[in-house]
Predict the 3D structure of the following.
Amino acid sequence: MKHSSLTVSKKLAFAAIAAALSTVFLYIGSISVLDLSSVILCALLTMLTVVETGEKYGWLTACVTGVLSLILLPVKLPAVLYIFFGGIYPILKATLEKTPYWLSWLFKISVLDTMLLLTIALSRLVFIAEEAFLPLTLPVLLLGTVFFIVYDLALTACVTVYITRIRKRLGLRKLF
């Protein structure tokens, strides 16, 4: 029993560190021009949390980071971007990729386009982010879809490199 509580503690600590780092990166992104870059970096931290500790701790990391960033960030747009694209999507991606290839892409594009529409709506209506105003037009949705496909492929490539090359060197697998 002692071993399992120690493992739970380690997983919780890993998730907490990932949430703290993500919040710091998002803060830096919100006070500079690196807001989208910080969201992508935080998405990688969320995915690494899922890989190392499981989906439950990935959700914990995403929720804590989302709440802290909404409270602490001076500009809220990076927080909204993180919640949808850096927090929720990497966890959903892992689940959606368990379905057949063509079906997973259909689901992923549907989810990403829905999140894009929600981000635009929240930015305009709730957070009144005039500087980030994107009109709801077909070119914006098409460009967003292309960006998200590249984003998805890049996340897959980064996680693959992590699992095949970096993970053994860090020795994190032995901890859990």
Notes: Residues 138-170 form the longest helix (33 residues). The mean pLDDT is 86. The chain is about 80% helix and 0% strand.
